[in-house]
């Protein structure tokens, strides 16, 4: 029958963190570390590109690697061989990707004259124990040119994990879903403002000719995805019961979802995974309305999180001359108390 019309319309897909940054969920699945059959290096347990992209998806997570690196080097004593920037870049790599690499620069006698940071994103361990840097082919992103380093040239620092002894895994990986939840919640809020609403409805009509139905469909298409308030005119015969001819059926309304709570929960989960007290991140703990002693919080965090982090990098002293050892003057943390305003 002419009036038996079924119209299927696509009102567009939601924009997510995964598609926006070309991130695939496969990047966040643990993969067994195996030998790459083509290049003879060990594959990584997670996509390092995927882990790096996560820094772009969440403001709290993206800021924390640099925050921790800066705090680690707060009382770093100037060194003539190892520069501040070298350690900072390596610390950011370690925090974000779970691994960092240094290249030893020696003279002909074997004395270390310098240490250079090598970006962890493209570093791989070879089957024979040496390391290589993956340089992408300009014409084919899936092809690599391997820049190989001799044994003993690269220092690889990573935290031990029971899953693999070849590479490290960042300790915040357990907060992966919270990182993505925070991003998706912000996108949902932004889309609400952009569209004027985040509601899904079904428009049911009856007693309308196919020609008029086509015109209605065209008008609805014009309104898709833009924040406008419009008016649509329907021409019905005299005496028609409009309430029966047109029915709007609500299907979903995401504006009723408390996205602010979701974003706050995401931020809280991320800080817990990083081991950072919320006060140091500029947040007020929801479960503790009263103010806490910021100096005590800083000292405790520095003692139990930053100093152990520094110890990891002190392994470099095994390769440095005695007059160029890494030194962190951590006793200066007590001067932080003098910077605090009087109660």
Which features would summarize this protein structure in a list?
343 residues, alpha+beta, disordered N terminus
How are the secondary structure elements laid out?
Layout: H1 17-20, H2 48-53, H3 59-72, H4 84-97, E1 99-106, E2 112-118, E3 123-125, E4 131-136, E5 144-149, E6 154-158, H5 176-195, E7 199-205, H6 210-222, H7 242-245, E8 246-253, H8 259-274, H9 294-313, H10 336-339
Antiparallel strand pairs: 1-2, 1-6, 3-4, 4-5, 7-8
- Strand order of the biggest β-sheet: 2-1-6
Helical run tally: 10
Strand content: 5-15%
The largest sheet is: 3 strands, antiparallel
Which residues sit in consecutive blocks of at least 5 with pLDDT less than 50? 1-23, 225-229
- Count of strand segments: 8
The quaternary organization reads as single chain
Radius of gyration, in angstroms, nearest whole number? 29 Å
Rounded average pLDDT: 79
Indicate the percent of residues in helices. Answer: 25-40%
CA-based shape: elongated
Give, in order, the helices and strands: HHHHEEEEEEHEHHEHHH
Structural class of the helices, strands and pairings? alpha+beta
């Amino acid at each position: 029958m002419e009036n038996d019309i079924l119209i299927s319309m696509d009102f567009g897909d939601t924009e997510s963190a995964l598609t926006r940054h070309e991130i695939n969920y496969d990047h966040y699945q643990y993969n067994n570390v195996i030998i790459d059959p083509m290049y003879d290096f060990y594959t990584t347990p997670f996509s390092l590109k995927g882990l790096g992209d996560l820094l772009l998806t969440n403001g709290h997570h993206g800021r924390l690697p640099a925050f921790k690196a800066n705090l680690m080097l707060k009382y770093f004593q100037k060194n003539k061989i190892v520069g501040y920037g070298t350690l900072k870049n390596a610390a950011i790599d370690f925090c974000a990707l779970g691994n960092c690499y240094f290249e030893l620069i020696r003279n002909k006698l074997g004395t270390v004259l310098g240490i250079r940071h090598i970006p962890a994103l493209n570093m791989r361990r070879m089957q024979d124990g040496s390391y290589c840097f993956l340089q992408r082919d300009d014409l084919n992103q899936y092809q690599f040119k391997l820049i190989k380093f001799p044994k003993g040239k690269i220092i690889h620092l990573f935290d031990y994990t029971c899953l693999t002894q070849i590479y490290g895994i960042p300790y915040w990986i357990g907060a992966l879903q919270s990182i993505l939840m925070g991003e998706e919640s912000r996108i949902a809020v932004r889309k609400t403002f952009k569209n004027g609403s985040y509601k899904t409805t079904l428009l049911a009509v009856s007693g309308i000719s196919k020609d008029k139905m086509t015109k209605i469909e065209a008008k609805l298409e014009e309104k898709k995805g833009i924040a406008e308030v419009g008016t649509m005119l329907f021409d019905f015969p005299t005496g028609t019961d409009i309430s029966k001819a047109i029915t709007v059926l609500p299907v979903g309304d995401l504006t009723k979802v408390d996205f602010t709570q979701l974003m706050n929960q995401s931020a809280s989960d991320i800080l817990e995974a990083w081991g950072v007290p919320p006060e140091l991140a500029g947040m007020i703990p929801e479960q503790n309305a009263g103010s806490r002693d910021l100096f005590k919080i800083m000292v405790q965090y520095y003692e139990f999180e930053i100093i152990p982090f520094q110890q990891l990098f002190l392994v470099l002293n095994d390769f440095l001359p005695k007059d160029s050892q890494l030194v962190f003057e951590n006793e200066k943390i007590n001067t932080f108390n003098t910077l605090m305003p009087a109660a």
